Amino acid sequence: MKPHDMGVLLDECAEQQLGTRVHLDRPFDIDAGARTHHTLPQLATLVREAAGWLAAAGAGPGDRVAIVKDNHWDYDLLACAAVRVGAVPAQLSAHLSGEVLGTLLARLGPALLVTTAHVLERGRKEGTDLASTARATLVLDGAVPGTLGMDDVRGHTAPGPHRRHDDEPLVIHHTSGTTGVPKLVVHSTRTIIGKLARFESVRLPRIGLRRTDVLANASAFAHGRTFCWTASALCMGPAAISIITTQDPNLADPVLRARPPTVLEALPASFVRFQPLTEGLDNPFRRVRMVISTYDAVHPPTVRAYLGASRHKRPVWLEGWGQTETGPLTFRFHTRQSVRRASGGAGTRNLGRPVPVKTRLRVVDPDTFRPLPSGQAGLVLARTAACALGYVGEEERWSAKRHGGWWNTGDIGARNRDGSFELLDREVDRTPQLSCLRTEDLLQARLPNALECVVLAEPGRDPLPVVVTADGRVDPARWKEAVRDLPPLREPVALTWDQVPRTGTGKVRRRELLHRLTGRTGTYGSGRWT
Protein backbone atom coordinates (compact mmCIF):
# COMPACT_ATOMS: atom_id res chain seq x y z
CA MET A 1 0.00 0.00 0.00
CA LYS A 2 1.29 3.45 -0.98
CA PRO A 3 0.21 6.66 0.77
CA HIS A 4 -1.74 9.18 -1.29
CA ASP A 5 -4.75 10.88 0.33
CA MET A 6 -4.03 11.79 3.96
CA GLY A 7 -7.71 12.47 4.59
CA VAL A 8 -8.56 8.77 4.20
CA LEU A 9 -5.16 7.28 5.09
CA LEU A 10 -6.37 5.47 8.19
CA ASP A 11 -9.59 4.32 6.53
CA GLU A 12 -7.51 2.69 3.79
CA CYS A 13 -5.16 1.11 6.35
CA ALA A 14 -8.17 -0.31 8.19
CA GLU A 15 -9.68 -1.64 4.94
CA GLN A 16 -6.40 -3.39 4.18
CA GLN A 17 -6.80 -5.12 7.56
CA LEU A 18 -3.32 -4.15 8.65
CA GLY A 19 -2.83 -5.51 12.14
CA THR A 20 -0.70 -2.68 13.50
CA ARG A 21 -1.30 -1.86 17.17
CA VAL A 22 -0.48 1.62 18.45
CA HIS A 23 0.73 2.13 22.03
CA LEU A 24 1.03 5.53 23.71
CA ASP A 25 2.96 6.81 26.71
CA ARG A 26 -0.13 8.89 27.56
CA PRO A 27 -3.63 9.18 26.04
CA PHE A 28 -4.28 11.43 23.07
CA ASP A 29 -5.51 14.91 23.96
CA ILE A 30 -8.44 14.38 21.56
CA ASP A 31 -9.55 10.96 22.89
CA ALA A 32 -12.39 11.17 25.41
CA GLY A 33 -11.84 7.48 26.18
CA ALA A 34 -8.31 8.22 27.44
CA ARG A 35 -6.97 5.01 25.85
CA THR A 36 -3.27 4.23 25.54
CA HIS A 37 -3.73 1.35 23.07
CA HIS A 38 -5.39 1.62 19.64
CA THR A 39 -6.03 -0.47 16.55
CA LEU A 40 -5.97 1.17 13.11
CA PRO A 41 -9.78 0.93 12.78
CA GLN A 42 -10.08 2.77 16.12
CA LEU A 43 -7.74 5.49 14.89
CA ALA A 44 -9.72 5.75 11.64
CA THR A 45 -12.88 6.28 13.68
CA LEU A 46 -11.15 8.95 15.76
CA VAL A 47 -10.07 10.83 12.62
CA ARG A 48 -13.62 10.71 11.21
CA GLU A 49 -15.00 12.00 14.52
CA ALA A 50 -12.44 14.80 14.56
CA ALA A 51 -13.40 15.73 10.99
CA GLY A 52 -16.95 16.12 12.25
CA TRP A 53 -15.78 18.45 15.02
CA LEU A 54 -13.84 20.64 12.57
CA ALA A 55 -16.77 20.82 10.15
CA ALA A 56 -19.12 21.71 13.00
CA ALA A 57 -16.71 24.48 14.01
CA GLY A 58 -16.94 25.94 10.51
CA ALA A 59 -13.85 24.57 8.75
CA GLY A 60 -14.29 23.60 5.11
CA PRO A 61 -12.56 23.35 1.72
CA GLY A 62 -9.71 25.83 1.28
CA ASP A 63 -9.75 27.02 4.89
CA ARG A 64 -6.66 27.01 7.06
CA VAL A 65 -6.94 25.18 10.37
CA ALA A 66 -4.20 26.03 12.90
CA ILE A 67 -3.39 23.35 15.49
CA VAL A 68 -1.50 24.32 18.69
CA LYS A 69 -1.42 21.88 21.60
CA ASP A 70 0.80 19.71 23.77
CA ASN A 71 3.22 17.42 21.97
CA HIS A 72 1.52 14.21 20.80
CA TRP A 73 0.89 12.18 17.65
CA ASP A 74 -2.72 13.39 17.56
CA TYR A 75 -1.30 16.48 15.85
CA ASP A 76 -1.23 14.27 12.74
CA LEU A 77 -4.65 12.77 13.44
CA LEU A 78 -6.12 16.29 13.60
CA ALA A 79 -4.22 17.19 10.42
CA CYS A 80 -5.72 14.15 8.64
CA ALA A 81 -9.15 15.24 9.85
CA ALA A 82 -8.61 18.74 8.45
CA VAL A 83 -7.45 17.32 5.13
CA ARG A 84 -10.56 15.12 5.06
CA VAL A 85 -12.87 18.18 5.18
CA GLY A 86 -10.82 19.97 2.50
CA ALA A 87 -8.99 22.34 4.83
CA VAL A 88 -5.25 22.96 5.04
CA PRO A 89 -3.87 22.12 8.50
CA ALA A 90 -1.11 24.30 9.94
CA GLN A 91 0.71 22.48 12.75
CA LEU A 92 2.29 24.90 15.23
CA SER A 93 4.35 23.82 18.23
CA ALA A 94 3.07 24.90 21.65
CA HIS A 95 6.76 25.22 22.54
CA LEU A 96 6.77 28.57 20.69
CA SER A 97 6.32 31.76 22.71
CA GLY A 98 3.00 33.56 22.73
CA GLU A 99 4.51 36.41 20.71
CA VAL A 100 5.84 34.09 18.02
CA LEU A 101 2.58 32.13 17.88
CA GLY A 102 0.71 35.40 17.48
CA THR A 103 2.97 36.38 14.56
CA LEU A 104 2.53 33.03 12.81
CA LEU A 105 -1.24 32.97 13.35
CA ALA A 106 -1.52 36.50 11.97
CA ARG A 107 0.27 35.34 8.82
CA LEU A 108 -2.00 32.32 8.54
CA GLY A 109 -5.32 34.04 9.17
CA PRO A 110 -6.92 30.68 10.05
CA ALA A 111 -10.63 30.00 9.79
CA LEU A 112 -10.25 27.80 12.87
CA LEU A 113 -7.72 27.56 15.71
CA VAL A 114 -7.67 24.21 17.51
CA THR A 115 -5.89 24.59 20.82
CA THR A 116 -6.05 24.18 24.59
CA ALA A 117 -7.01 26.41 27.49
CA HIS A 118 -3.41 26.34 28.70
CA VAL A 119 -2.07 27.65 25.38
CA LEU A 120 -4.62 30.49 25.32
CA GLU A 121 -3.87 31.41 28.95
CA ARG A 122 -0.12 31.41 28.36
CA GLY A 123 -0.64 33.64 25.32
CA ARG A 124 -2.66 36.11 27.39
CA LYS A 125 0.01 36.18 30.10
CA GLU A 126 2.56 37.00 27.41
CA GLY A 127 0.37 39.76 25.99
CA THR A 128 -1.08 37.94 22.97
CA ASP A 129 -4.75 37.09 22.37
CA LEU A 130 -4.28 34.04 20.18
CA ALA A 131 -8.01 33.41 19.73
CA SER A 132 -8.44 36.81 18.06
CA THR A 133 -6.37 35.68 15.09
CA ALA A 134 -8.92 33.08 13.95
CA ARG A 135 -12.52 33.23 12.81
CA ALA A 136 -13.36 30.59 15.44
CA THR A 137 -11.44 28.77 18.17
CA LEU A 138 -12.03 25.21 19.35
CA VAL A 139 -10.66 24.42 22.83
CA LEU A 140 -9.95 20.73 23.38
CA ASP A 141 -9.73 20.63 27.17
CA GLY A 142 -12.09 23.09 28.79
CA ALA A 143 -14.50 25.99 28.59
CA VAL A 144 -13.05 29.36 27.61
CA PRO A 145 -15.39 32.35 27.11
CA GLY A 146 -15.79 33.33 23.48
CA THR A 147 -14.61 29.96 22.13
CA LEU A 148 -16.12 26.62 21.20
CA GLY A 149 -15.73 23.63 23.51
CA MET A 150 -15.89 19.94 22.72
CA ASP A 151 -19.51 19.76 23.86
CA ASP A 152 -20.36 22.21 21.07
CA VAL A 153 -18.98 20.01 18.29
CA ARG A 154 -18.96 16.42 19.51
CA GLY A 155 -21.31 14.03 17.73
CA HIS A 156 -21.49 15.89 14.42
CA THR A 157 -21.22 13.68 11.34
CA ALA A 158 -18.21 14.38 9.15
CA PRO A 159 -18.85 15.28 5.50
CA GLY A 160 -17.54 12.92 2.83
CA PRO A 161 -13.81 13.09 2.09
CA HIS A 162 -12.83 16.11 0.02
CA ARG A 163 -10.44 15.45 -2.86
CA ARG A 164 -7.83 17.99 -3.91
CA HIS A 165 -5.33 18.25 -6.74
CA ASP A 166 -1.85 16.90 -6.00
CA ASP A 167 -0.34 20.35 -6.51
CA GLU A 168 -2.74 22.24 -4.23
CA PRO A 169 -1.62 23.15 -0.69
CA LEU A 170 -1.98 20.14 1.61
CA VAL A 171 -0.29 21.04 4.89
CA ILE A 172 1.70 23.85 6.52
CA HIS A 173 4.61 23.28 8.89
CA HIS A 174 7.01 25.69 10.49
CA THR A 175 10.80 25.53 10.50
CA SER A 176 12.64 24.98 13.76
CA GLY A 177 13.21 28.68 14.40
CA THR A 178 16.75 28.48 15.76
CA THR A 179 17.58 31.94 14.39
CA GLY A 180 14.32 33.80 14.99
CA VAL A 181 10.65 33.58 14.05
CA PRO A 182 10.07 30.29 12.18
CA LYS A 183 8.97 30.28 8.55
CA LEU A 184 5.62 28.76 7.58
CA VAL A 185 6.29 26.19 4.85
CA VAL A 186 3.53 25.04 2.48
CA HIS A 187 3.72 21.52 1.05
CA SER A 188 1.45 19.81 -1.46
CA THR A 189 0.43 16.18 -1.78
CA ARG A 190 2.93 15.82 -4.62
CA THR A 191 5.89 17.17 -2.63
CA ILE A 192 5.48 15.73 0.89
CA ILE A 193 3.54 12.55 0.04
CA GLY A 194 4.35 11.73 -3.59
CA LYS A 195 8.05 12.60 -3.43
CA LEU A 196 8.91 11.92 0.24
CA ALA A 197 6.49 9.52 1.98
CA ARG A 198 6.17 7.19 -1.01
CA PHE A 199 9.95 6.95 -1.26
CA GLU A 200 10.05 5.79 2.38
CA SER A 201 7.32 3.23 1.68
CA VAL A 202 9.56 0.98 -0.41
CA ARG A 203 10.60 -2.28 1.27
CA LEU A 204 14.31 -1.89 0.64
CA PRO A 205 16.70 -4.64 1.78
CA ARG A 206 17.94 -4.22 5.35
CA ILE A 207 16.57 -0.68 5.88
CA GLY A 208 12.97 -1.08 4.65
CA LEU A 209 10.24 -1.51 7.27
CA ARG A 210 8.92 -5.03 7.81
CA ARG A 211 5.55 -6.35 8.95
CA THR A 212 7.29 -7.82 12.03
CA ASP A 213 8.89 -4.53 13.11
CA VAL A 214 8.07 -2.69 16.32
CA LEU A 215 8.52 1.03 15.68
CA ALA A 216 9.20 3.53 18.43
CA ASN A 217 9.05 7.26 17.70
CA ALA A 218 9.99 9.95 20.21
CA SER A 219 9.58 13.11 18.20
CA ALA A 220 8.15 16.63 18.00
CA PHE A 221 4.84 15.80 16.39
CA ALA A 222 4.02 19.32 15.18
CA HIS A 223 6.80 19.14 12.60
CA GLY A 224 6.84 18.01 8.99
CA ARG A 225 9.00 14.96 9.58
CA THR A 226 6.30 13.14 11.56
CA PHE A 227 3.55 14.00 9.06
CA CYS A 228 5.62 12.28 6.37
CA TRP A 229 6.49 9.43 8.78
CA THR A 230 2.81 8.92 9.61
CA ALA A 231 2.01 8.36 5.95
CA SER A 232 4.85 5.94 5.29
CA ALA A 233 4.92 4.02 8.59
CA LEU A 234 1.19 3.25 8.65
CA CYS A 235 1.18 2.05 5.05
CA MET A 236 4.00 -0.40 5.77
CA GLY A 237 1.85 -2.19 8.36
CA PRO A 238 4.39 -2.88 11.14
CA ALA A 239 3.39 -5.13 14.04
CA ALA A 240 3.33 -2.26 16.51
CA ILE A 241 4.06 1.45 16.91
CA SER A 242 5.03 3.04 20.23
CA ILE A 243 4.62 6.80 20.57
CA ILE A 244 6.73 8.65 23.14
CA THR A 245 5.93 12.29 23.84
CA THR A 246 8.40 12.92 26.66
CA GLN A 247 12.16 13.41 26.91
CA ASP A 248 12.17 12.12 30.48
CA PRO A 249 13.96 8.74 30.38
CA ASN A 250 12.11 7.53 33.48
CA LEU A 251 8.75 8.02 31.72
CA ALA A 252 9.93 6.63 28.38
CA ASP A 253 11.55 3.52 29.83
CA PRO A 254 8.34 1.59 30.70
CA VAL A 255 6.89 2.13 27.21
CA LEU A 256 10.10 1.02 25.53
CA ARG A 257 10.49 -2.02 27.77
CA ALA A 258 6.90 -3.15 27.26
CA ARG A 259 7.61 -3.57 23.54
CA PRO A 260 11.34 -3.34 22.80
CA PRO A 261 11.60 -1.60 19.42
CA THR A 262 13.32 -3.00 16.36
CA VAL A 263 13.26 0.41 14.64
CA LEU A 264 13.84 3.55 16.69
CA GLU A 265 13.40 7.16 15.59
CA ALA A 266 13.83 10.11 17.91
CA LEU A 267 14.91 13.72 18.15
CA PRO A 268 18.66 14.25 18.64
CA ALA A 269 17.85 15.73 22.06
CA SER A 270 15.81 12.63 22.96
CA PHE A 271 18.69 10.35 22.03
CA VAL A 272 20.89 12.28 24.44
CA ARG A 273 18.34 12.22 27.25
CA PHE A 274 17.56 8.50 26.79
CA GLN A 275 21.22 7.46 26.55
CA PRO A 276 21.44 6.23 30.19
CA LEU A 277 18.84 3.59 29.22
CA THR A 278 21.32 1.96 26.83
CA GLU A 279 23.29 0.45 29.71
CA GLY A 280 22.76 -3.17 30.78
CA LEU A 281 21.97 -6.41 28.97
CA ASP A 282 18.23 -6.01 29.49
CA ASN A 283 18.19 -2.45 28.08
CA PRO A 284 15.07 -1.54 26.04
CA PHE A 285 17.12 -1.13 22.83
CA ARG A 286 18.47 -4.69 22.73
CA ARG A 287 16.28 -5.65 19.72
CA VAL A 288 16.99 -2.53 17.65
CA ARG A 289 18.15 -3.27 14.09
CA MET A 290 17.84 0.28 12.78
CA VAL A 291 18.00 3.75 14.30
CA ILE A 292 16.78 6.79 12.34
CA SER A 293 17.86 10.33 13.16
CA THR A 294 17.00 13.63 11.49
CA TYR A 295 16.84 17.34 12.42
CA ASP A 296 20.47 17.59 13.56
CA ALA A 297 23.69 15.61 13.91
CA VAL A 298 24.12 13.18 16.81
CA HIS A 299 27.58 12.93 18.33
CA PRO A 300 29.64 9.71 17.92
CA PRO A 301 29.54 8.73 21.64
CA THR A 302 25.73 8.68 21.51
CA VAL A 303 25.64 6.72 18.24
CA ARG A 304 28.10 4.21 19.71
CA ALA A 305 25.97 3.82 22.84
CA TYR A 306 22.80 2.85 20.93
CA LEU A 307 24.50 0.58 18.41
CA GLY A 308 26.38 -1.06 21.26
CA ALA A 309 23.17 -1.57 23.22
CA SER A 310 21.65 -3.66 20.42
CA ARG A 311 22.12 -7.42 20.36
CA HIS A 312 21.34 -7.44 16.65
CA LYS A 313 24.23 -8.79 14.60
CA ARG A 314 24.57 -5.71 12.35
CA PRO A 315 22.47 -2.76 13.55
CA VAL A 316 22.60 0.41 11.45
CA TRP A 317 22.11 4.07 12.23
CA LEU A 318 20.48 5.95 9.34
CA GLU A 319 21.20 9.66 9.50
CA GLY A 320 19.30 12.03 7.24
CA TRP A 321 19.99 15.70 6.58
CA GLY A 322 17.46 18.03 5.07
CA GLN A 323 15.11 20.90 5.78
CA THR A 324 11.41 21.47 6.29
CA GLU A 325 11.32 23.05 2.84
CA THR A 326 12.94 20.11 1.05
CA GLY A 327 12.67 16.94 3.10
CA PRO A 328 15.77 14.70 3.27
CA LEU A 329 18.59 15.76 0.95
CA THR A 330 21.34 13.36 1.97
CA PHE A 331 21.63 10.15 3.95
CA ARG A 332 24.40 8.28 5.66
CA PHE A 333 24.75 4.96 7.46
CA HIS A 334 26.69 4.40 10.66
CA THR A 335 27.68 0.96 11.90
CA ARG A 336 29.55 -0.22 14.97
CA GLN A 337 32.70 -0.35 12.88
CA SER A 338 32.32 3.10 11.33
CA VAL A 339 31.69 4.90 14.64
CA ARG A 340 34.56 2.99 16.23
CA ARG A 341 36.79 4.50 13.54
CA ALA A 342 35.34 7.98 14.12
CA SER A 343 37.70 8.80 16.95
CA GLY A 344 38.25 12.25 18.37
CA GLY A 345 34.79 13.45 17.43
CA ALA A 346 35.29 13.14 13.68
CA GLY A 347 32.63 11.84 11.40
CA THR A 348 29.31 13.27 12.56
CA ARG A 349 29.31 16.28 10.22
CA ASN A 350 29.80 14.21 7.08
CA LEU A 351 26.27 14.28 5.68
CA GLY A 352 26.80 11.41 3.30
CA ARG A 353 25.68 11.54 -0.31
CA PRO A 354 22.61 13.08 -1.94
CA VAL A 355 19.53 10.86 -2.10
CA PRO A 356 19.98 8.89 -5.37
CA VAL A 357 17.94 10.06 -8.37
CA LYS A 358 15.98 12.54 -6.21
CA THR A 359 18.49 15.15 -5.07
CA ARG A 360 21.43 17.14 -6.43
CA LEU A 361 23.71 19.35 -4.34
CA ARG A 362 26.32 21.93 -5.25
CA VAL A 363 28.61 24.22 -3.25
CA VAL A 364 28.89 27.84 -4.40
CA ASP A 365 30.68 31.03 -3.44
CA PRO A 366 28.37 33.00 -1.08
CA ASP A 367 29.04 36.26 -2.95
CA THR A 368 29.13 35.24 -6.62
CA PHE A 369 27.21 31.94 -6.50
CA ARG A 370 29.79 30.37 -8.77
CA PRO A 371 30.33 26.62 -8.17
CA LEU A 372 33.32 25.76 -6.00
CA PRO A 373 35.67 22.77 -6.39
CA SER A 374 35.81 19.82 -4.00
CA GLY A 375 37.21 20.63 -0.59
CA GLN A 376 36.36 24.34 -0.70
CA ALA A 377 33.71 25.64 1.71
CA GLY A 378 30.71 27.59 0.47
CA LEU A 379 26.93 27.79 0.46
CA VAL A 380 25.15 24.50 -0.16
CA LEU A 381 22.43 24.62 -2.83
CA ALA A 382 19.97 21.78 -3.42
CA ARG A 383 17.82 20.70 -6.35
CA THR A 384 14.85 18.46 -5.57
CA ALA A 385 11.32 17.88 -6.85
CA ALA A 386 10.19 17.66 -3.22
CA CYS A 387 10.78 21.38 -2.64
CA ALA A 388 7.82 23.08 -0.97
CA LEU A 389 5.44 25.56 -2.61
CA GLY A 390 6.50 28.61 -0.59
CA TYR A 391 6.34 30.53 2.69
CA VAL A 392 3.06 31.89 4.06
CA GLY A 393 3.23 35.69 4.21
CA GLU A 394 6.91 35.87 3.24
CA GLU A 395 7.00 35.57 -0.52
CA GLU A 396 10.09 37.79 -0.91
CA ARG A 397 11.99 35.69 1.61
CA TRP A 398 11.11 32.56 -0.36
CA SER A 399 12.16 34.14 -3.67
CA ALA A 400 15.50 35.21 -2.17
CA LYS A 401 16.32 31.57 -1.41
CA ARG A 402 15.53 30.33 -4.93
CA HIS A 403 18.22 30.51 -7.59
CA GLY A 404 16.75 29.16 -10.80
CA GLY A 405 15.91 25.57 -10.00
CA TRP A 406 18.21 25.54 -6.95
CA TRP A 407 17.29 26.01 -3.29
CA ASN A 408 19.65 27.85 -0.95
CA THR A 409 19.91 25.81 2.26
CA GLY A 410 21.70 28.59 4.14
CA ASP A 411 24.31 26.06 5.28
CA ILE A 412 28.06 26.30 4.79
CA GLY A 413 29.60 23.03 3.63
CA ALA A 414 32.08 21.39 1.30
CA ARG A 415 31.94 18.54 -1.18
CA ASN A 416 34.43 15.75 -0.54
CA ARG A 417 36.24 13.91 -3.32
CA ASP A 418 34.14 10.78 -2.74
CA GLY A 419 30.92 12.72 -3.48
CA SER A 420 29.83 13.10 0.14
CA PHE A 421 29.19 16.49 1.74
CA GLU A 422 30.57 17.99 4.92
CA LEU A 423 28.47 20.39 7.01
CA LEU A 424 30.54 23.14 8.63
CA ASP A 425 28.09 25.75 9.97
CA ARG A 426 24.89 27.65 9.35
CA GLU A 427 25.85 30.71 7.31
CA VAL A 428 24.45 33.01 9.98
CA ASP A 429 26.45 31.27 12.75
CA ARG A 430 29.83 30.92 11.04
CA THR A 431 33.11 32.42 12.23
CA PRO A 432 36.43 32.73 10.32
CA GLN A 433 38.39 31.18 13.21
CA LEU A 434 36.96 27.67 13.02
CA SER A 435 33.96 25.48 12.23
CA CYS A 436 31.67 25.77 15.24
CA LEU A 437 30.04 22.41 14.49
CA ARG A 438 33.30 20.49 14.11
CA THR A 439 34.64 22.07 17.30
CA GLU A 440 31.48 21.06 19.16
CA ASP A 441 32.01 17.45 18.05
CA LEU A 442 35.60 17.46 19.26
CA LEU A 443 34.68 18.93 22.63
CA GLN A 444 31.83 16.46 23.03
CA ALA A 445 34.21 13.56 22.44
CA ARG A 446 36.83 14.91 24.83
CA LEU A 447 34.48 15.80 27.72
CA PRO A 448 32.83 12.55 28.86
CA ASN A 449 30.39 14.28 31.23
CA ALA A 450 29.15 16.73 28.56
CA LEU A 451 25.57 16.23 27.41
CA GLU A 452 26.08 18.84 24.69
CA CYS A 453 28.64 21.42 23.59
CA VAL A 454 27.76 24.66 21.80
CA VAL A 455 30.23 27.10 20.27
CA LEU A 456 28.86 30.61 19.75
CA ALA A 457 30.44 33.01 17.25
CA GLU A 458 30.61 36.72 18.04
CA PRO A 459 32.29 39.39 15.87
CA GLY A 460 35.51 40.81 17.27
CA ARG A 461 35.91 38.20 20.01
CA ASP A 462 37.04 34.61 20.32
CA PRO A 463 34.21 32.05 20.07
CA LEU A 464 32.32 31.38 23.31
CA PRO A 465 31.98 27.69 24.28
CA VAL A 466 29.00 26.46 26.30
CA VAL A 467 29.21 23.04 27.97
CA VAL A 468 25.93 21.42 29.02
CA THR A 469 26.28 18.92 31.86
CA ALA A 470 23.96 17.23 34.33
CA ASP A 471 25.13 19.42 37.23
CA GLY A 472 26.08 22.58 35.33
CA ARG A 473 29.80 22.17 36.05
CA VAL A 474 32.91 21.50 33.99
CA ASP A 475 36.23 20.35 35.39
CA PRO A 476 38.92 23.01 34.67
CA ALA A 477 41.69 20.43 34.16
CA ARG A 478 39.59 18.39 31.72
CA TRP A 479 38.67 21.56 29.86
CA LYS A 480 42.29 22.65 29.52
CA GLU A 481 43.19 19.24 28.11
CA ALA A 482 40.18 19.26 25.73
CA VAL A 483 41.15 22.57 24.06
CA ARG A 484 44.92 22.01 24.01
CA ASP A 485 45.18 21.92 20.19
CA LEU A 486 42.16 24.04 19.23
CA PRO A 487 42.04 27.67 18.07
CA PRO A 488 41.57 30.22 20.88
CA LEU A 489 38.29 29.96 22.75
CA ARG A 490 36.96 31.96 25.67
CA GLU A 491 36.55 30.37 29.07
CA PRO A 492 33.61 27.97 28.96
CA VAL A 493 30.16 28.65 30.36
CA ALA A 494 28.74 25.55 32.07
CA LEU A 495 24.94 25.14 32.08
CA THR A 496 22.39 22.44 32.79
CA TRP A 497 20.13 21.11 30.05
CA ASP A 498 17.09 23.16 31.16
CA GLN A 499 19.09 26.41 31.23
CA VAL A 500 19.59 26.31 27.45
CA PRO A 501 16.86 27.89 25.25
CA ARG A 502 15.64 25.35 22.72
CA THR A 503 13.21 24.89 19.87
CA GLY A 504 10.39 22.35 19.95
CA THR A 505 12.75 19.84 18.33
CA GLY A 506 15.43 20.35 20.99
CA LYS A 507 17.76 22.48 18.86
CA VAL A 508 19.65 25.24 20.64
CA ARG A 509 18.46 28.77 19.92
CA ARG A 510 21.98 30.09 19.41
CA ARG A 511 21.21 33.79 19.02
CA GLU A 512 19.01 33.77 22.13
CA LEU A 513 21.64 31.88 24.13
CA LEU A 514 24.33 34.34 23.02
CA HIS A 515 22.13 37.25 24.06
CA ARG A 516 21.46 35.73 27.47
CA LEU A 517 25.16 35.20 28.11
CA THR A 518 26.64 38.37 26.56
CA GLY A 519 23.79 40.80 25.92
CA ARG A 520 24.71 40.76 22.23
CA THR A 521 23.32 39.10 19.10
CA GLY A 522 25.84 40.19 16.48
CA THR A 523 26.92 37.64 13.88
CA TYR A 524 29.66 37.19 11.28
CA GLY A 525 27.20 35.79 8.78
CA SER A 526 24.84 37.85 6.66
CA GLY A 527 21.72 35.99 7.80
CA ARG A 528 20.22 36.59 4.34
CA TRP A 529 19.30 32.93 3.88
CA THR A 530 17.96 31.93 7.30
Automatic annotation (TrEMBL):
PROSITE patterns: AMP_BINDING (PS00455). Residues 25-391 form the AMP-dependent synthetase/ligase domain. One of its GO terms (molecular function) is ligase activity. Keywords: Ligase. InterPro entries: AMP-binding_CS, AMP-dep_synth/lig_dom, ANL_N_sf, ATP-dep_AMP-bd_enzyme. It holds the Pfam family AMP-binding. PANTHER family: LONG-CHAIN-FATTY-ACID--COA LIGASE (PTHR43767), NONRIBOSOMAL PEPTIDE SYNTHASE PES1 (EUROFUNG)-RELATED (PTHR43767:SF1). This is Putative 4-coumarate--CoA ligase 4. It comes from Streptomyces afghaniensis 772. The lineage of its organism: Bacteria, Bacillati, Actinomycetota, Actinomycetes, Kitasatosporales.
